[in-house]
Amino acid sequence: MSETLHLLVVDDEMGMRLSVERALRHFSVHLPDLQDDIAFRVSQAESGEAALALIDADPPDLILLDYKLPGMSGLDVLTALQERKLDLLVVMITAYASLETAVQATKIGAFDFLAKPFTPEELRATVQKITRHCMLQREASKLAEERRQIRFEFLSVLAHELKSPLAAVQGNLFILRDHLAGETIQDYDHLVNRSIIRLEGMKKLIFDLLDLTRIESGQKKRTLADLDLCAAARLSIETHRALAEEKHVSISFEGPTSLRMKADAGELEMILNNLISNAVKYNKDGGTVTVALLELGPSVSIAVRDTGIGMTQAEVSRLFGEFTRIKNKRTMNILGSGLGLSILKRVSHLYGGQVHVQSEPDQGSTFTVTLQKEPSSAPSDGAPSLTVR
Amino acid sequence: MTTKKKILIVEDDLDQLDHLAVILKADGYEVISAQGQAEGEEAMLATIPDLAILDLMMENMDSGFVLCHQIKQLYPETPVILLTAVRSETGIDFSAKSKAASSWTKADVLLDKPIRPEQLRVEVRRLMA
Q1: B5-62 pLDDT, tens per residue?
Q2: Three-class SS of residue A65?
Q3: Beta bridge partners of A253
Q4: Which residues of B touch A159 (CB under 8 A)?
């Protein structure tokens, strides 16, 4: 990519203005980290008044501003620029660079100084420095804007997901109030049960959201200790036994008797519970769940296989988005916040881990999580930011 | 005998889909239910609805707008009600500010969820009069 920045030189000496123009005519700044090459278009003004008129007509990106000008001084121009709130950087050119003037000029917005007289090389070095700063600053504000946009979208979807169960329950109450579904109280059993399910779902969403926010913001306390993954898996299986029996689902365990790793007990529980409860919830009546642990050199893998409703390729590809719940008639009675897999992914990320899914509609799914046995205690970077403030 | 008026409801929340259906059936309309944008697209090709009620945010954040546009292309005479749950929280203003915007979304009414049965009846009756 290549771009041209507009540089304005304000000096009452024509020789100075021309030498700046000459020095920058075939000059360009290479910014490897932004993959950008910046060239310059130089315009000139011989006084502060002329400069401001030009700035209003054609705002520059960079200004080289002489301190001592006839009429308005360099400082007057800086003050006038402050009111305009433009996205530009100013370098003061001055023959008498006292500390006092430097401090004064910096206070009202000058970014750097260039002492007169200067060589073309000195000029180019300064221009290179401010160009780099200018472009990095713009890149940063672009990223901040993107983050704001992502957060806004997240909040819109969140609002939607929180209001849907409310709307559903309220709708059920309207039907009850107006006796629209029949004359006997049994005619309303379904509506009451659905209301309970929706409120449970809403509660789960709020709890999951709090979990996710804590993980994201690094507020959650982590205590890494030497733990037995097999024992944790067996415990999680026991926790889900009752839910599984309701659906006549059997859970079995495959793996070594013990598998040591460094982990936070709560996080490990979160991972295992997420995987196993999904495998039970999305299973068929009479199905099976297999929890298989495997040691793979420096990592461990946790594979949870179910014989459940499975997913199509299209559904799998949407699976890891926030609030993605595969909605169809088979999943409507299953509680879920749409955040479980986001949590799973983020917690796994803390262990340098990954989540893979393999699925076949009507046959079942296998979720495999790989974790480092010796994770670094600092959360790794790179997870998309989702913090809600 | 007069044939029943057909109302197409597209809503990805099955409970809310059921409510709308219960209320409208009780008022004597024939209801065609579609769960989500994809089903909605199929349903509108299979029958000509006398009225369509569309949820805004389904598979995509703008599913309702897209469906509305499609319905108006196919059946310019069919009135459309758009339902949204996200207007107040997010401050998103869906109301068309200009003629151009309203000709693009083309919904006849935009209602906030949850919708009260009385309100639904009034709007449906008004649009099909």
Answers
A1: 999 999 988 889 999 999 999 999 999 999 989 999 999 999 999 999 999 888 777 8
A2: strand
A3: A291
A4: 85-86, 89-90
Q: What is the pTM of this model?
A: 0.60
Contacts with B85 from chain A: Cβ below 8 Å: 159-160, 163-164, 167
Q: What is the ipTM of this complex?
A: 0.76
Two tokens at A186? 């049994």
Say if the Cβ atoms of B61 and A157 lie within 8 Å.
yes
Residue A120 within any structural domain of the chain? yes
Check CB contact under 8 Å for B89 and A163: yes
Q: Is residue A335 within 8 Å of A283, Cβ to Cβ?
A: no
Position B17 in a domain: yes
Amino acid identity at A237: I
Residue A256: which CATH number? 3.30.565.10
pLDDT tens digits, A42-78: 999 999 999 999 999 999 999 999 988 888 988 899 9
Residues A224, A136: one domain? no
* Domain contains B1: no
Query: Who's near B92: CB < 8 A, 6+ residues apart?
Result: A156, B86
Q: State the pLDDT at residue B71.
A: 93
Inter-chain contact A174–B26, Cβ cutoff 8 Å?
A: no
Question: Does residue A180 sit at the B interface (CB-CB below 8 Å)?
Answer: yes
